[in-house]
Design the sequence.
């Protein structure tokens, strides 16, 4: 299908669905490897919330696209270049400190984006966003607790967080860039104005880190291109696993 | 609507309202605020609308099939169960009877906050075992998407809380 003829809302729903889907996959990798039993429950539940959000967005994307693709077709049958998430969600979980800090950054962003989208003039968008928003706030509060623990932990926990902050700093610009959202969605109220999202995000991160020595540095190199289908080898790793059952047994159902 | 249809509609509503939550079987889908509407069409089709508690709630598929089989057993052979998201489900939709059933079952019911306030920090829940409010959260997440884990410092029992979000 010619991309130019797609309804603009498909662009929005697909990108939000892909952010949630890939982050859900990455977060679920921590199951059976979390540092505490309570955190086992947390990563499993956060992954589940994100998976549910992904299913809602991708179902909407498929309906609005009108080509007969459902959530499963979009998750299992797309090529890597057809995904539209931002790169921060596809990075591997190299360390628990990294997982925590990434989830802080992405859930802070989600709370801001979803809050705005819950005011959408499009009822389906408003409904999915309103439901997802409450979940994201809960995730944000949970990760803030971990940042507090790790920043007041040991020299090593601080060292690992600092390394994670250094790596993640290269992905912040792309996360906060909302210029990919089609202008017509802003104009017709589907997507309420997003102007202040970067400033609001920095305020959440600053207040979280206010009483710590952790700093997210300015990055000299910034990731970009995820929203237009550029991807790294990390996505291939995620999709190989995510799509493997479908590839082995096309069309299988329970 | 004919009197006969009226009666069938009432029956369908009663049957749908009595279907229980697959994960917390003391609550009906009506108690939980998950059951939205039951509509009997002129051609005999029955439409049931439900809403999920959480985006990823895996119980939704079971709820759909439980509703369909309960209604089919009551003589409704054309039943469509659809899931709608708007308006989003919230803990305030749990009925007063449902809240009491949760408490009696050993799950502390959600603390309902005023609309528009930020997400509340839940403190001092009443222990469903001994009634004490000397309680604290041990885990923000629990065995299902809708629950967190708590402990009581008076009777030392652990208990679940239906999350207040």
Sequence:
């Amino acid at each position: 299908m010619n991309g130019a003829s797609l309804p603009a809302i498909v662009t929005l729903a697909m990108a939000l669905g892909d952010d949630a889907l890939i982050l859900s996959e990455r977060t679920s990798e921590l199951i059976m490897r979390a540092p505490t039993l309570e955190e086992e429950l947390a990563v499993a539940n956060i992954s589940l919330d994100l998976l549910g959000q992904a299913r809602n967005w991708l179902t909407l994307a498929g309906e609005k696209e009108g080509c007969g693709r459902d959530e499963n077709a979009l998750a299992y049958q797309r090529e890597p270049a057809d995904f539209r998430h931002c790169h921060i969600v596809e990075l591997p979980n190299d360390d628990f400190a990294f997982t925590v800090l990434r989830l802080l950054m992405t859930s802070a962003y989600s709370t801001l984006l979803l809050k705005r989208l819950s005011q959408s003039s499009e009822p389906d968008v408003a409904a999915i966003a309103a439901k997802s928003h409450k979940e994201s706030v809960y995730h944000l509060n949970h990760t803030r607790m971990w940042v507090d623990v790790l920043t007041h932990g040991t020299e090593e926990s601080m060292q690992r967080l600092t390394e994670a902050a250094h790596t993640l700093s290269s992905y912040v610009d792309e996360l906060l860039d909302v210029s990919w959202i089609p202008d017509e969605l802003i104009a017709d109220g589907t997507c309420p104005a997003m102007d202040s999202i970067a400033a609001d995000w920095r305020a959440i991160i600053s207040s979280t880190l206010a009483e710590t020595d952790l700093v997210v540095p300015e990055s000299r190199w910034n990731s970009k291109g995820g929203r237009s289908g550029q991807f790294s080898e990390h996505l291939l790793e995620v999709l190989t696993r995510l799509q493997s059952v479908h590839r082995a047994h096309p069309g299988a159902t329970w | 609507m004919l009197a006969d249809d009226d009666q069938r509609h009432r029956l369908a509503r009663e049957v749908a309202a009595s279907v229980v939550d697959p994960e917390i079987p003391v609550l009906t889908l009506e108690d939980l605020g998950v059951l939205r509407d039951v509509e009997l069409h002129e051609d005999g089709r029955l439409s049931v609308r439900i809403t999920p508690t959480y985006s990823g709630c895996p119980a939704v598929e079971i709820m759909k099939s439980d509703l369909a089989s309960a209604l089919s057993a009551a003589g409704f052979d054309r039943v469509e169960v659809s899931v709608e998201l708007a308006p989003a489900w919230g803990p305030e939709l749990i009925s007063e009877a449902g809240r009491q059933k949760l408490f009696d079952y050993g799950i502390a019911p959600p603390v309902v906050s005023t609309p528009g306030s930020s997400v509340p920090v839940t403190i001092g829940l009443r222990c469903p075992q001994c009634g004490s409010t000397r309680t604290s959260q041990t885990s923000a997440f629990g065995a299902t998407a809708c629950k967190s884990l708590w402990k009581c410092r008076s009777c030392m029992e652990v208990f679940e809380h239906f999350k207040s979000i």
The first helix of chain A runs from residue 8 to 28.
